[in-house]
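Why run this: before we spend reagent on co-expression, it is cheaper to look at a predicted model of the complex and decide which construct boundaries make sense. The entries below are exactly what would go into the expression plan.
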Amino acid sequence: DAGVIQSPRHEVTEMGQEVTLRCKPISGHDYLFWYRQTMMRGLELLIYFNNNVPIDDSGMPEDRFSAKMPNASFSTLKIQPSEPRDSAVYFCASSFRGSSYEQYFGPGTRLTVT
Amino acid sequence: ILNVEQSPQSLHVQEGDSTNFTCSFPSSNFYALHWYRWETAKSPEALFVMTLNGDEKKKGRISATLNTKEGYSYLYIKGSQPEDSATYLCALRGLGNEKLTFGTGTRLTIIP
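The model came back. Tokens follow.
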């Protein structure tokens, strides 16, 4: 398996623009997690899905952030409108019960909002 | 909210020396403890998952122990090598929960 795939790897956008980050989990994994990494707060969980259904979105910072998982092999994290303080590395991870919920991380998307 | 603490925040170790660091968590809400290794500009990579009190896991020169009654886990690296330089994260999975709560990590730098 290719592992968790994220795109784009880098995104530079202007304040106010819409940003969409994409994730393809490992085939057979039924949990998908979106994290944000910043210097100030470390690795923080934004939202996670089980069988394509959002389970806990309490980490989503505000209404500008939204996430979807239309099928088992694809998820998006959207920021609209983007702000400079959204600049961070966004990771997607997937897991399944059989692996003791061990999470496998994608390479991350480095987002810069100017 | 689960509180997972790691110490020290950072550590510099001479190549060849052994080292260890700590992860502390609330023992009352424990299901599993995960350790990850996170190299700069890469993504976190799973090292160990531990569930039982007294568990010991080993992968090469890296090993970990778990004490669920007192709420801590130690990660040991024997004979440090430059490639061990990374941030080591621990993460707690609480009872009835599929998500992980991560500590802020211990940043390890091996001095050649």
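The mean pLDDT of chain B is 93. Chain B touches chain A through 19 residues (CB under 8 Å). Bring this page to Monday's planning discussion.
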